[in-house]
Amino acid sequence: MRRPPPLARIPREVACLTDYEPLARERLDDNAWAYLAGTAADGVTHAANRAAFDALTLNSRVLREMSGGSTETEFLGMKLRHPVMVAPVAYQKLYHPDGERATAMAAGALDAPMIVSTQTSTPIEEVAVAAEGSPLMFQLYWQADRGATRALIERVEAAGVRAIVPTADAPISGIRNAEQRAGFHLPAGIAPVMLGQWPPAQKPLSGHPIFDGLLGHAPTWRDIEWLLGTTKLPVILKGVLSPDDARRAADIGCASVVVSNHGGRTIDSLPPSITALPRVVDAVGDRMPVLLDSGIRRGTDILKALALGARAVLVGRPLMYALAAAGPLGVGHAIKVLVEELAVAVALTGHARITDIGPEAIFR
User: Fold this and answer.
1) Mean pLDDT for the stretch of residues 31-48
2) Peptide bond just before 97 cis, omega within 30 deg
3) Among residues 47, 99, 160, 341, which is most buried (max CB within 10 A)?
């Protein structure tokens, strides 16, 4: 089937992030689409992420002074023009020939920090050049041994990343039926270029194929403590839903946590990230800033996350729809739309600055 090329301009019909989804579907084959749009099992958590945002209503205040307002914030010493970050997404060349380079170009142009996946299909050094100085962070999947993990960390440190983001909630892949039905595979020319042998060699199995096999190299809290002693960069633990896990991350010295259910891609029936957020924020108090991902589609979603204690949000899948539809132009436009929607929502709820937003912005 002949598929249309990426758009060279953004049509006026594309007014919000969800408008990119059908355009992406037209341009992606079943293999790539299954990986991008698929969810764990029945998609209960994926749907719940949106339903939970939609169930929250905003409290509007009127006739307030708005002069001098802005969407600026701060995160781990980084001055940010807005609280939108690019979430780590693997194998972006599945969606556009320029892959992560295209995303980094757009993120750099819109001043959006980007978290680069361990499974990037573009070397970190090329991504850094494309980002043109905009902050990059590196999402870390644990490697077969600490030596390989250390080498990976040293390489991304040399490329200038600003933080290491180990992902805690996906030591193995979830049950993704859409990928199974499509027979998902990486096409020729697309691979996790930062890693060595792929797929990795399997050690002889003795015991349960999951607990003693696939999870044989899964990280534990001891590994996070080792990581904290290995790098001088801030460590942001991604994939936290439990207040107890958040407290432990703060206790051992993590700089931040990302409240996340992996966009509903790991295990189904987890709580929505936005529902888990207040408990995590309460657990860590003022010891660390908290980030949130999973389910963000609108500027009002970002406002709700900020009101419940998030410092900033990560957006992944919607930006990949935009990447597939229109390359770096699409990603940049999608980020711009989110930031503009946020600014309007902040103003219309009676806030001049996003740093003024608190729990009172949610209607009780």
Assistant:
1) 96
2) no
3) 99
Q: What is the mean pLDDT of residues 349-358?
A: 96
Which of these, 294, 229, 296, 292, lies nearest to 256 by C-alpha position?
292
Q: What angle do CA 235, 241, 246 make, to 5 degrees?
A: 45
Tell the residue number behind the tokens 């749907």, with chain if given.
Answer: 47
pLDDT higher than threshold 90 for residue 260: yes
CA–CA dist 160, 141 (Å, integer): 18
Q: Which amino acid is at 357?
A: I
Question: Residue 349 and residue 357: Cα distance in Å, rounded?
Answer: 10
Query: Is the predicted pLDDT of residue 33 greater than 90, yes or no?
Result: yes
Residues 6 or more apart whose CB falls under 8 angstroms from that of 346 comprise 69, 71, 303, 352, 353, 354, 357
Spatial contact of 42 and 265, defined as CB atoms under 8 Å apart = no
The type of residue at 352 is A
Q: 145: pLDDT confidence band, cut at 50, 70 and 90?
A: confident
Q: Is the dihedral of CA 336, 27, 292, 156 positive or negative?
A: negative
The helix (run of H) or strand (run of E) holding residue 256 is: strand 256-259
Catalytic residues: 262
pLDDT at 215 over 80: no
Q: Return left, alpha or beta for 4; rule: phi > 0 is left, psi -120 to 50 is alpha, else beta.
A: beta
- 201: tokens are 């060699």
Helices 99-109, 317-348: axis angle to 10 degrees equals 10
H/E segment holding residue 278: helix 273-284
Among candidate residues 70, 74, 56, 73, the one with its CA nearest the CA of residue 351: 70
Confidence at residue 52, expressed as pLDDT on a 0 to 100 scale: 98
